[in-house]
Amino acid sequence: MGMMKRLTAALAVATVLGGGLVAANAQEVVLRSADTHPDGYPTVEAVKFMSDVLKKETDGRISIQVFDSHQLGEEKETIEQTKFGVIDLNRVNFAPMNGIVPATIVPCMPYIFTSKENMRSVMDGPIGEDILKAFEPAGYVGLAVYDSGARSFYNSKHPIKTLEDLKGLKFRVIQSDLFVDMVNALGANATPMAYGEVYSGLQTGLIDGAENNWPSYESSKHFEVAKYYSLDQHSQCPEVLMMSKVSWDKLSPEDQTAVRDAAKQSVTKMRELWDAQEEKSRKIVEAAGVEINEVDPAPFVKAMDPIYEKYADTPELKDLVKRIRDTQK
């Protein structure tokens, strides 16, 4: 179903229900939340946890119904629906928001964070709060930042320890100019490709490798056909839980505070689940004989200078880059 058809259908449902923010009765409010990930995924479970917190804090008056497994559409479609208030809450990666909220570009830049701990500290602090505030002029309320893991390179040829090891290799990347430019700048050949085609591409030699986090590498079975995993951690682009400004404005100030507080509490739950999933996935691929190696990131980071010049191209974005890097000194 195309985006406009999905939006029309969702609007029709919302009309029947009285809008995206559904009033179950005069006192109760049920917020509709979208996620492309399946039931049980850390982000899905985190929003369910947020609903439990909200119900407790409001004596059952406010709750959240989570529509997982892209029931309400893919990320691009649900972003549109959220702006119009057809969907109240939405969990999406920062990447599809880059063209809507420019501040989201910086956390998606390659090697911007030095570790998972650095990313979490930055996004939990004033910098993260400023990025969340930048959602509002675009019609959204940024509530919380979730993890999406660290993406690293894996391939079927040999370990990647230096830039020289990347030369000539064909890597699948997501369909993103930033990712294409990043891989090419490292000396490899970027091949944009749908996620579902990667396994066969690796199996047939159409591509030599790809890049992703531990849970995706494991659950996709890519480790079966690409047994070299190199921990360069080039991207830790986070995810955002955001709310429609239309739906937000229907809430009282007290209820807005309750929603924001519950969202913040859900971050801890999401990270607990994510860390556990990463550990489980890594153990599975290690048991399967995958060769894992560490990488000195310094030469890789230096190779990204042209990418920063191209994408962090305004005074505001350059300042945001500087603020993040200052946390690492």
TrEMBL record:
CDD domains: PBP2_TRAP_SBP_like_3 (cd13671). GO terms for biological process: transmembrane transport. It comes from the Bacteria. Keywords: Signal. InterPro entries: DctP_fam (IPR018389), TRAP_DctP (IPR004682), TRAP_DctP_sf (IPR038404). The keyword Signal applies. Residues 1-26 form the signal peptide. GO terms for molecular function: carbohydrate binding. The keyword Transcription regulation does not apply. One of its GO terms (cellular component) is outer membrane-bounded periplasmic space. Transmembrane segments: none annotated. This is TRAP transporter substrate-binding protein.
